[in-house]
Design goal:
mainly alpha; 2 domains; two-stranded antiparallel ribbon
Length: 108
């Protein structure tokens, strides 16, 4: 689907130029120029599609790096003796405890 608009412009102007060549050669030449512009637009769209700054692969790579960074940050916080929040009851638990004293849910 990339370059479809430019390709459509080029094809339509080429067909129109061929159809009117015998009546008005200057108008056919104008159609030829419009066709060249259409081809240039198609090429530009195709190239822009290949270098998409928001590609799925780069997004997955970014998410993977962020997850590693978050894990490293959370391990540093636990190592520093910071409190842990229980995922079940949202109570603050000391980092040295293996389970929440309120609900018994393991926090590690």
């Amino acid at each position: 689907m990339k370059g479809l608009r430019g390709t459509a412009i080029a094809v339509v102007s080429a067909l129109f130029g061929i159809a009117i060549w015998s009546f008005a050669p200057w108008l056919a030449a104008v159609c030829g120029l419009v066709g060249l512009v259409g081809v240039a637009m198609a090429v530009q769209e195709i190239i822009a599609g290949r270098t998409d700054p928001y590609s799925l692969a780069s997004l997955e790579d970014f998410e993977r790096k962020e997850e590693v960074r978050r894990l490293l940050d959370s391990e540093e916080q636990i190592a520093d003796g910071a409190d842990i929040v229980c995922p079940r009851c949202f109570d603050h638990v000391a980092s040295g405890l293996p389970a929440c004293p309120r609900c018994g849910h393991p926090v590690r």
